[in-house]
Batch of 3 targets.
Target 1
Amino acid sequence: MSNQIFQTLKELPTPLDESQCVIHKHELLICGGYKQRACYSYHTLKNEYKLICEYPSHVKLYGHCVVKLVNNNNKDRNQITLLSFGGAFEHTLVMKYASVWSNISNKSNEFNNYNKWTKFTNNDNNPIIIGHHCDYRGARAVIGGSNNHLLFITYYKNNISVFDLNTFQSIKHSRLSTNFIRDHCFVSNPENGKWQEMVKTNKQNQMMLFCNCTGLSIEYDEDNTTFQFHELPVCDDIASLNRYAYVCINNAILFFGGWSFDGVSKSVHKYLIRENKWMTFENNLPSPLENCVAVLNEEDNDIHIIGGRDDKNTILSTHMKAKLRIWDVSQLSKNEITSIIEYWIRILKIKLGWIDDFDKIIMKYIFSKILNQYTSVEDKEGVHDCLQKQSWINSNSIIMSEIDIILIRWNKIIKTNFIQNVKQQRVVFYENKNEQEIVNCIEYFPEDPPIQISYSTITIFQS
């Protein structure tokens, strides 16, 4: 199944370990890696790479960090600025980037200083080093602040610092309530942007950090320059891991692979932010990976996974992608949702026998989000109630969780006929009081003919 989910793309121009990647429209900007100074642009539509530049020869990369700066006054979306810093060997550089796939970057004069790494300087043109004498190998950073002017940096051993990009000064340092972080997950809470849109005076920043058995919610108050830390749960399956790839999407963080003393992992985990719950998926990476990088291309909702090391410590040149909807059902297109609904309505019309055990079986995957988009379904007097819980998408299949569904009358849609071929399979639930629930799930493939129904399992870790 993993090989069907992940599509292999054109190999990287060179094997990359501990690389950094930033998305820009239809381009993935791949900025160096362990002992690799070359930077490339990968075009997601062309499936091709182009060399952008190389880091200066004196720069040694080992666990560096790259972020995309946000210029609120820049109305030209074709140009962005990247900031590279940290690693085992100090450097702080910036790159003004204009697409290497367009003619604009080849023009003279105005674009002479584009697409090359230059010193990061203050308003007096003095070079600035971020994190001087700090151990920034495997550091992670996010941009925040009410004006996108703050750089939050988390780094070994348990440090967090705030650097003001307007004043070019470090304005806050604190210790995290953990003993060790490196090569970890550090993201802004997706709600930050919504708060800033609703309340312009809001100067609260929320972030999340995961490394091994540590999970932290981090809040920073700009006015008072104070931190607050709150512990978050970490499921057992991921508690021994770091060096994983991760992406933050909507209400969730996805984790791919990772390293522990027991070896290299190929597992995929999901942390639901609002629900404060973890999931471990059956659909793993095709092979074990550590130190790879993951990035979400919002143009086509693909997650790209780039480079890394395998369980034989070989640095890889692999590049693969998978659809976000595999792990996030809210990304289904309207056409896909329509096809799924029509499929279930069609098979539910099969006039077969009836058993009392299945009075409560119904299409739970039509949760509230889908119903809100398709009021015509509600208009047919079909749905009286449904539970608002999420489903999982597997390539061309749907996995429905927890079939403990309330009875829904379908009246004119299916009258009183239900699925006979389901009755021959018992949907059994096992509940463990030790905060773990194992759920048997129906997996079906929307191919007609024939109709195929099989079973699989998802483990849900509850806080």
Target 2
Amino acid sequence: MSVTTDALEREVAAIRTIPQDRNARMAQRRDRHCARIMQLIAPRVRHFTRVYGLLDIADDAEQACAIGVHRAICDYDPAPCAIHHVRELATALRAAGLAPSRSARFA
């Protein structure tokens, strides 16, 4: 695996070990790990923003990615193939109208 993938795995594992308590300290720890994850994937987010021509709504695209990342973290299971989470993120982007539909890509 790549250095980035290893770092993502560590951050997600750290988030998953934080108790679900609603106190400020635990929320701050989760937020810190989520911010690191977003920093790690920022180059990919920018890449897909350019590829899909979303430069005029880059902030919205980044927010949609953050929502997809949050959902992927909640559903994360290290046992199955990671491609499931990539598909989930792509589906979330399409549902938000931030990515072309599958049929549009091949038209």
Target 3
Amino acid sequence: MLQRHTDAADRMIGDIVLLVRLLKRAGPALHGHDSAGFPVLTRLAYEGPRRSGELAAAMCSDPSTVSRQVAALVKAGLVERRADPEDARASLVAVTAEGEQVLDAERRTRAARLTEALRDWTPEAREDFADLFHRFVADLQRQHDRQHDPSHHEDTR
């Protein structure tokens, strides 16, 4: 039984690696901008302005990496730094109107690619896959949080 679970995990890991490579190679960079900042831009658009450190933690990424991505997005005019109303010493990063436009165009492009890739799937199969994939990512996030945040550890006594 354990071997079957290990085989399935190995198959999924191989597929995930391939998926990441395919997504990185897919089409143009963020409509003329460096696509490395796409996850940062997306997170800010969905969750609103954040401090850079909070953003790095939420994305399970190194703060220096997120800082470089934010700097590139600021330079491109896609995000801006604003004073944090709760702490004048800190700044928040927020999506600009241009950033929203670029993100919207990129979302449409990526959605069209996925729609094309899944064109032979039934609507039910697409919904089932989306639900299971969301659950998979949420479970991985919870596992990560438990391993990296002591407040998420359960009492094992």
